[in-house]
Structures
1.
Amino acid sequence: MNTNGLSNPAPAPSEAAAPLARYERVKEHIRTRILSGEWRPGDRIPSEMTLVGELGVSRMTINRALRELTEQGVLTRFSGVGTFIAEEKPQSTLLMIAHIGDEIRARGHEYGYSIMLAAREAAASDVSAALGLAPGASVFHVVCVHRENGVPVQLEDRYVNPEVAPHFLEQDFSAVRPSEYLFNTVPAHEVEHVVDAVLPSRADAKLLEIGADQPCLTLVRRTWANNVAVTFARFVHPGTRYRLGCRFSSDSMQRQS
């Protein structure tokens, strides 16, 4: 059979394995031609009848193979036009920025929050360093407490670079949360998350209505837009009331590894 055929050399006894179904062999044949570079994204592949002649299998087998490869995103089929190698999709590592109010409401619980501080102030050394600003630079500072069914579950302590969000403090934070305003106004191109288990400061414990000896999970987030720091925020969660987690697919794990 020619090199486009599906016949394979007989394996040695130690290599024997259950043979692939014919449609799976067709799929492997197509993938091989894509990986070799013979067929590139956007190329139109031969018609079903041409593949029948090349591969020596039924049209039903070809149709099933093409259908499954289309469902898997390898091919794109257009009725009356033909079947094409799917264009490569951009891939990125996603680090989700979750809005706690949306999460709480999704659980069917009551959400509320209070702004404890909204001011412009000179940045402390750790804040200016985190935002890439000169020592003592002017920054926006907000502190708010998020509640689930009236119970504090998160303390948000956020600093914002005025250069990228000059109208931040002009917002009515009773109508829009600080995180929502930033998310919609200055979309983050890069995000850094660091989580630590800590004991709360006395001030944090008071705002969260917990004892100073109660362990908390603290998420520190920095975001950038066009390589300029946007925000430096600390989110403190009482360990007995809240937990941090995520769900992702094995595909996303492979992309991030």
Note: The first helix runs from residue 22 to 35.
2.
Amino acid sequence: MSGVCATNATTNETTGRTAGGAVARAAGRAAVLGSPIGHSLSPVLYRAGFAAAGLSSWSFDAIECDAARLPGLIAELGAEWAGLAVTMPGKQAAAEFATGRSARVDALGVANTLIRSGNGWWAENTDVDGVRGALHAAGVTPSGPVLLIGGGGTARAVVAALAEMAWDGPLVVAGRRPASSVIVVDLARRYGLPVRAIGLSVDEIAAAATESALAVATVPAGAADHLAGALARVPALFDVIYHPWPTPLAAAGAAGRITVTGLDMLLHQALRQFELVTGVRAPADAMRAALRKAVETDLALPV
């Protein structure tokens, strides 16, 4: 799949089916599920998208929902519900609840998108599109060694993205917990990526960074701050944190380094998700403008 962002999709006016396989819908309801949900930026992105795309009859809500409650809540939704964005802690539950799954979801075991499909729900993981789209838009060349810090669901999405991009170069995984590192390493091997694991000490990270073309940090805010100096000279940095910004990792970068943010990933995953939910092309410029305004940032967020 091309998968860079939803703006690559086209719509067949006769059938209403987009090039990405989604079916355009005249109206519908959608929401983001998660806990806590008050911080979610999905309503900002979707509502701006609805307005720009002329989808005045669409609505988007934010619903407080943990993993245990997710199956029962979704089972009660009426036919007017077209799609759902799923954030933490419900991504594994969403994948398990779905009646159909993409190859990505089967491989990763987590889903952030549920699309109404007949009497059931189809699961996708557009976090992978978020990684791919963000790296592509920033001009990162898919070549050279990659240092991946972290071992959670986002790290798995990074592995899938590298594989889909046919990344030319080995992967080094530095996880905070051995058990999660094993999962990411095994996933990389299943995707056919050359991979090895290291610890998270400053010395180990510094040694790996000297050979890396790209470093990706997927750990929570503050967890990698002590590695800022060790990663300062990496040619490209992808830090999935977007608040507060800049992170110490981003601020320590040498002049000319390519820096990709969590907001870039959020935007690009939302563009693809918007297309899957609505069946129409995502208005990327309008959604980007709304996101920048909501977080009061001057980051470029290229699309």
Note: Residues 1-21 have pLDDT under 50 and may be disordered.
3.
Amino acid sequence: MSQVASPAPITRLLVVEDDDTIRETVSEAMELEGFAVTAATNGQSAWELLNRERFDLVVLDLMLPGINGLDLCRQLRQTNNPPLILVVSARDTETDRVLGLEVGADDYLTKPFGIRELVARCRALLRRNRSQDPVLANGADSHQVLEHADLQLFRGECRVSRGGEELRLSPKEYKLLELFLQQPRRVWSREQLIEQVWGVDYIGDTKTVDVHIRWLREKIETDPSNPIHLVTVRGFGYRFG
């Protein structure tokens, strides 16, 4: 007797936008794409929703009344298993984009934007996130322990310790460290790291690599400003070990 395949889980999306027209347009479009959409008009109500319910992805405006989008990103980054965050903002300078990524956004889309691009970015973020199972790495032994100096990465348990103390890494930070530990001394360009960790379909800013490298250094280096493990190779990229 054949088994009926289980339906794919519905993606839960939170749209946080104080502009009525944009909020309603985005919500309706994403519902037509099959997302289960909840909307919030300000940062405070969004924060309350995020504390009560589990969302897979947040489409977040930065200029919000009450708690602004940047502060909301910072707060979410401190929680366990935070949702993916796609920032949408009229702020379109390089400094604005880098700041958004630094505080915890996974991608940054400037206004005005097309709905098709928004949908594509959301789907790309979700696809990459679901494909990144840190337990599986090119068929390698999932129980392998990767070590360097006082760092240990336990692949079967998806955890990292430094000097015997467990580190709290995000999935991207974990994947970066795993990649570096697998191939020490290799120099990786930003584009190569994007392809390996974010996926070949990533369409965001490559500066997100620099942001995540900085976060990883804060956790594995004694002096993150003068790293000895994860170093910058000027004009080429990054090397570990």
Note: The CA atoms of residues 20 and 41 lie 8 Å apart.
4.
Amino acid sequence: MRKGYNKFKGTGVAIVTPFKKSGAIDFEAYERVVNHVINGGVDFIVVLGTTGESATVTKHEKKALIEFSVGVINKRVPLVVGIGGNNTNDVVLSIHRTPFKGVDAILSVCPYYTKPQQEGIYQHYKIISESSPVPVILYTVPGRTGSNISATTTLRLANDCPNIVGIKEASGNFDQIFQVLKNRPKDFLVLSGDDGITLPLLAVGADGLISVAANAFPSEVSDIVNLGLAGKFKEAAKIHYKLIDFTNALFADGSPAGIKAALEIQKLCSNYLRLPLVPVNQEVYLRIKQLIDQIG
């Protein structure tokens, strides 16, 4: 059995990084959001992912945020840290500089912009796996990166690298996901990277979700996943349809702008982002507010 395999089943939340008007990280608001999602029943937290605006967080801020997360979470749930990039050597250096005490895994996005061949992607992750002192979760999201981890490459890594415990699948390519689910080792996790398609993926064998929407509605998202894993799809579908318009609205004018708007409406953090990201437009903001009021 892969080390740490069972820690990352269920509902993970790609947590936001709240900012103050000055642009500094708002650690007080971050603690509120962390407690909100843990009290809502999520199974693990992912810090410094796409939703955490990791691209605009400095190296010093990343270290401070990781160490603060370890203290605030206080072993209540596992902690996953986003460490990825399109320069393999730089990713390895980032791993070596990361304070891993209290960190349970890393989530590493597929190399972006350079559009490497599949062999390059394989070698990239193999080196990351060998360099990481904690388990590694792959992350394919071609809509953002311009590159994709194919099913063949995912399965090759799953079989060759015991330290790679799973993949966050946000390709939207159902056949690709089906091939991984069909042929994976039994202790290799497949986690949905898209809130909106999590329920059908659970129905064909996926192990959980790394969610954006769970920042705002952790209890409801966790219920969908837990019911789906238990095979109670009719009950899960009721909550899925309760949230689906809200989930879609979160991405209508960019993410994480949508979830930051939602968290401001819920009085959990302010609606500040770092450029080049900006808040959602007023129409989307009002739509998100309306949907939050409807959900209750």
Note: The chain has one domain: 8-231.
